[in-house]
Sequence to fold (219 residues):
Amino acid sequence: METKDVIYELRTKKGFSQEELAEKIFVTRQAVSRWETGETVPNTETLKLLSRLFNVSINTLLGSPRELICQCCGMPLEDCNISKETDGNFNEEYCKWCYVDGEYTLDIWKRYVEIGGKEKLEEFKRKLIDEINALGVEGMPKVEKLNALVGGYINLEYCLPNGKIVKFLDDNATYLGNQLECEFGGDRCFGIAANMEFILICTYEENGENPELVIYKKR
Ligand SMILES: [Zn+2]
Fold:
């Protein structure tokens, strides 16, 4: 859908006339009319006002040109799960679980923002990706990206050669990781979980069934 259709639809759904909408966002009725005929597009400031008024993201107002994903956990973003800033504007970079009240909720992010911000985290991720790829695990495709994952979701139980059942992760901590399909096919996937101290690589079947540890390596 194009911006003109999006605006028309949102306006009529709310039952506003062009005049009424214009008043609410401090523009002229003619401006609204020009948006709806596609002659012009609202400027950035007006898009923000429209976003607040209709409770939809700017991406939606622009006809969804971008495929939004949470930069923290990798979840696809839609208007219902996009985070907001404390002033009520959408923050279209993160989901509403990873970014709450103007702060990152996942510990690894908090730690990095404290140390040096987002760029530092990206730098760390790249380094970690290089280290993981350098391990040369047979059948595992090259890692391209890492997402933040909550330990509780990926804390699998492994059976060691001595018969002991162990878990390696902390349910409440956050790790950087990913899931990759095996290059040789089959129904086993590779799982990666890492943090500043270690890299863990395992394989498992659907839903984490029958996990096997491949590598646990201190960094
Ligand atoms: Zn997220």
About this structure: The longest strand covers residues 174-181.
